[in-house]
Specification:
single chain; 5 helices; five-stranded antiparallel β-sheet; alpha+beta
Length: 179
């Protein structure tokens, strides 16, 4: 109990050696105890059912105009395409964020690209979305430039256009959850 308190209240963390000295434990026991506490405090991907999920993507990385000459030249050589152009997103890391509209809970993760299949996989990892083609359209992508909503065969929940690509999906309850 005291180890949990020290771990939570310490600004810079607690080492296994410190726990070993304070509580007269063996090094292996102190390390194992800290690892179990850290594992229990860790965050796992959420599993949302019966919720509205909003998906947004962004790119993290340096601005080319703020790099020094050596870094800029290395960046151009690594990310220039066959036509000699450099896109603003080249060399940046794509990140997808999923937000549960009902609770405000969010989950972010790094992805390889922001294609539709990657976004679908990211949504399926945290939410229960129907995949059958016979069900009404449950996911609707809207664009900031589009004025009219996409036609649907059934009720959908529309999301506010907060980014160029927003996806809203009503999540249906399921009797099973992933293990």
């Amino acid at each position: 109990m005291f180890v949990v308190f020290e771990l939570c209240s310490s600004k810079n963390g607690v080492s296994a050696r410190e726990i070993e000295r304070k509580y007269d434990l063996t090094p292996k026991s102190a390390w194992f105890l800290l690892m179990r506490i850290r594992e229990g405090m860790g965050t796992k991907p959420p599993w949302w059912t019966d919720a509205t999920v909003v998906v947004g993507e962004t790119f993290f990385g340096p601005k080319v105009k703020r790099m020094n000459n050596k870094a800029r030249n290395a960046h151009y050589e690594a990310h220039i395409n066959e036509r000699g152009n450099l896109r603003p997103t080249d060399g940046k890391t794509p990140v997808v964020t999923l937000i549960n509209r009902d609770t405000g809970e969010s989950y972010s993760r790094v992805v390889n690209d922001v294609s539709g299949s990657t976004l679908r996989t990211a949504i399926n990892d945290v939410a229960d979305i129907p995949t059958s083609t016979s069900t009404p359209t449950a996911i609707r992508a809207t664009s900031a430039s589009a004025e009219t909503p996409a036609p649907t065969n059934g009720p959908t929940t529309a999301a506010a256009n907060t980014s160029p690509r927003t996806v809203a999906a009503p999540i249906r309850p399921s009797s099973t959850s992933p293990s």
